[in-house]
Amino acid sequence: MLLHFNRLQYVPGNIIQPNYGRVMWERGPSHPEWKREQILEGVRAAEFPNRPSRWECVFFFSTPEEARLYAQCGFAPRPAHLYDVELVEPMAPRHNADWKGTGPYDHEADWARRYWRGDLLRFDGSGTFYREELSLSPLRVLRELPAIE
Q1: How many CB atoms lie within 10 A of CB 4?
Q2: Which domains does the chain have, with CATH numbers?
Q3: pLDDT, tens digit, 9 for 90 and up, residues 43-76
């Protein structure tokens, strides 16, 4: 099961295109995450060029626990629709990373390197990770799920 949050309402069979970068580029430097994303993309391009660019990806979670943690930490969009989805192109490049590690936490780029290495932190020792997955593949909506509280 793959889980995806989105502000938009979809029905089974709809395709969600990777578009994180489109939203970022439309707002440019006025986007609140612009500087962070510039650092992440610079490190990726220079040191991890085989990883897919966040700008060209769609984001999702592999477990309900990880999706719930993301929502409970206040990062899911509002209003948030939660979807059970599948990758349209399962062999498209993917990356697992720690969404808590997307900084910036200092003027160095070590936090970005940890993100692109795929270093994961566990939440409270429960085995649940602060993991997000990203892929160049579009997502196909299978069904809408109940909202996570």
Answers
A1: 20
A2: 2-145 (3.20.170)
A3: 999 999 999 999 999 999 998 888 888 888 877 7
pTM: 0.87
Give the Cα separation of 52 and 87 in Å (integer). 15
For 83-137, what is each residue's pLDDT tens digit? 999 999 999 999 999 887 666 666 678 889 989 999 887 666 666 778 899 999 9
Q: Return the HEC string of the chain.
A: CEEEEECCCCCCCCEECCCHHHHHHHHHHHCCCHHHHHHHHHHHHHHCCCCCCHHHCEEEECCHHHHHHHHHCCCCCCCCEEEEEEECCCCCCEEEEEHHHCCCCCCCCHHHHHHHHCCCCECCCCCCECEEEEECCCEEEEEEECCCC
Q: How far apart are CA 119 and CA 103, in angstroms?
A: 13
d(CA 18, CA 20): 6
Residue type, 103: G
